[in-house]
Design goal:
Elements (H helix, E strand, L loop, with lengths): L2 H6 L10 E5 L4 H11 L3 E6 L11 H8 L3 E4 L5 H12 L3 E5 L2 H6 L4 H4 L7 E6 L12 H7 L20 H20 L3 E6 H8 L1 H10 L17 E5 L4 E5 L3 H11 L7 H6 L1 H12 L4 H9 L5 E3 L3 H7 L4 E4 L2 E4 L20 H6 L1
Parallel strand pairs: 1-2, 1-4, 2-3, 4-5, 5-6
Antiparallel strand pairs: 7-8, 8-9, 10-11
Helix pairs in contact: 2-8, 8-9
Keywords: Transferase
EC number: 2.8.3.19
Organism: Gordonia insulae
Length: 357
């Protein structure tokens, strides 16, 4: 590319010129394509005649997952809807779907069905347990329960618990977007199969390997304590809670000096004397507030943070919040030099049908 051409592209998103079709519902699929739209891709959201189901949750919910897209209504069970889908596929780089496997096959939303329209189309299927894994319900919380995540979360003397947000759906959306881009870059069409179950098992990486290789089962520890690092968990303070994460001896030396603690200088020693270390650290932290400890430890580079509510976190990071039409939202977490996303509002249902008419 010539210098002049490069200059012309400086303000364009890295995915400018890429067209992606989405038959997505609720969170995982729409989140994946919204991230791609933020990076400059053209995303066409294919909705049933009554609209994607998350429009019924709330306007805010739908808007938070569908900014920057266009909407077309198609009845994919009807002949004219399937013909219209074929026409869209002809000019697209990828199609991302999250539906039950039986619906994906029945509606012809696979590479095997669509390659006749475009040999290079990339078809990404997000499902609960894989395209051949059946139609068992696979909502986020169900998958967290089924993959061991819930059993690992919470204090040992409390029931299994779930995080306060949809970690499986969000993680699967990002993984699907990565798979989609990898295949588009290859220049080959094909089928990509991403399941919530496989993504969550993959994210248990070192826990899974500890069991598979060493027979070590994960256990829940008080206040979310890490299985390897000590101290690395939540601590109560004189006011508020502090997340402390000491991963190596240099961090411990700095922390111990600030907290007035002597001993336990080696990682192995801290791990072997977990209860004693936690008691000593807890006693020291009880003499000051979480906010003050954060300030005191940050100057030494020690990983520590006072627990904030979501409103407090958003108020503290105004640079992360963007205007999307008349709404506000958290912007794209991927910052590209020379490019600022055009945060357009979520589409009106069937806006492309109206303009075509």
């Amino acid at each position: 590319m010539s210098p002049d051409a490069a200059a012309d592209q400086r303000g364009a998103g890295p995915l400018a010129g890429i067209r992606i079709l989405e038959v997505g519902t609720m969170l995982a699929g729409p989140y994946a394509t919204m991230m791609l739209a933020d990076l400059g891709a053209e995303v066409i959201k294919i909705e049933p005649l009554g609209g994607e189901i998350s429009r019924q949750v709330s306007d805010t919910y739908f808007a938070s997952l569908n900014r920057g897209k266009r909407s077309t209504r198609l009845d994919l069970t009807a002949r004219d809807g399937r013909e219209a889908l074929g026409e869209l596929v002809e000019g697209a780089h990828a199609l991302l779907v999250n539906l039950k496997p039986s619906a994906i096959h029945r509606l012809g939303l696979t590479y095997a069905s669509l390659r006749e329209f475009n040999e290079r189309i990339v078809c990404v299927a997000i499902t609960g347990f894989g395209l051949t894994g059946g139609d068992d319900p696979a909502f986020d919380y169900v998958v967290q329960a089924a993959t061991g995540v819930a059993a690992m979360t919470g204090d040992p003397d409390t029931p299994p618990t779930l995080p306060g947000y949809s970690s499986a759906d969000n993680s699967t959306g990002l993984t699907a977007a990565l798979g989609l881009l990898a295949q588009v870059i290859s220049g080959r069409g094909g089928q990509i199969d991403v399941s919530l179950r496989d993504v969550m098992l993959s994210q248990l990486n070192y826990h899974a390997s500890a069991y598979l290789d060493d027979g070590v089962e994960p256990v829940r520890r008080p206040r979310g304590a890490h299985s390897f690092y000590v101290p690395a968990q939540m601590f109560p303070t004189a006011e508020g809670h502090l997340a402390l994460f000491i991963t190596h001896d240099a961090f411990w030396k700095s922390f111990a000096g600030e907290a007035g603690i002597d001993g336990f200088w080696q990682m192995a020693e801290r791990a072997a004397n977990r209860d004693e270390v936690i008691a000593v650290v807890g006693e020291a932290l009880a003499h000051d507030t979480a906010a003050n400890w954060q300030t005191r430890l940050r100057k030494w580079g020690v990983p520590a943070a006072a627990v904030r509510s979501l409103p407090e976190a958003l108020d503290a990071t105004p640079e992360a919040v963007v205007d999307v039409g008349t709404r506000r939202a958290v912007g794209c977490p991927i910052r590209v030099d020379g490019y600022v996303p055009d945060y357009a509002p979520a589409p009106v249902l069937g806006e492309m049908n109206a303009s075509a008419g």
